[in-house]
Amino acid sequence: MYNILCPNCNHSQQISLKQLKKKRNNVTCSACKLQFNARTILNSQASQSQKQEALVSEVQIPEISTLIKARSQAIEEPEAIDDPVIETYSWQQKKPAYHSQRWLAGVILGLFLLAFQVYYFKGYSLSQNPQIRPWINIFSTKLNYPLPVYRNLAEFSTIGSKLKLVSPGNYQVQISFINHADFAQRLPDILVSLHNLHGGLFARRIFTPEEYLSNENTPEIIESSANANIDFFITVPDQEIGGYSIELK
């Protein structure tokens, strides 16, 4: 609210800024009914008040004392200024501890599921990798969980093989090989192929370790750098054999 003095009768009346805008700064004195521009009156009143404040400030300025205070006078310590209060936003506030615990539990569960998926889909192929298998073996030993038996046919080397006639229709198969892998391997399968006098194939069979091992108690594992001598008998059709081949599978 503004107090406006009538320029004619000095009658004081109050008027709001909203009323000034509505009447476009034209005000009618309630005493003498004079219509005048309120904005002009307000500006003149403001300038007069500023002059009065300047005069008051000039009067209140004290003269500088020529007296010098003694050095022994105690120096007043400045008043301590309180630290400003800093408002924090909700996203800046510290989260409760249980949120961190949930995050930690979620991360551990996620890592466990990821490791399980890798093992489920890639576990066997990774265990057959000669570079990765030693590292996986460390974890499997600590977890007391055996790895699948290592198998790499390329790391077997055949020393010699022989097909010997024992009796009509009965032959003895002999083959020797060595395991060059750095790990123990399962004994390979043995493929025996028989050819006629014209070179055509007339008989073929794959023998598993369970079939060609004579003793049931013989282990089906061959250690690293160990050699194996396999000897077993087969029965073939009544036909002349022109050639044969014995391979590891």
UniProtKB/TrEMBL annotation:
Tree of life domain: Bacteria
Membrane spanning residue stretches: 103-121
Keywords assigned by UniProt, alphabetized: Membrane, Transmembrane, Transmembrane helix
InterPro entries: DUF3426
Keyword Membrane tagged: yes
Protein name, as recorded: Zinc finger/thioredoxin putative domain-containing protein
Originating organism: Methyloprofundus sedimenti
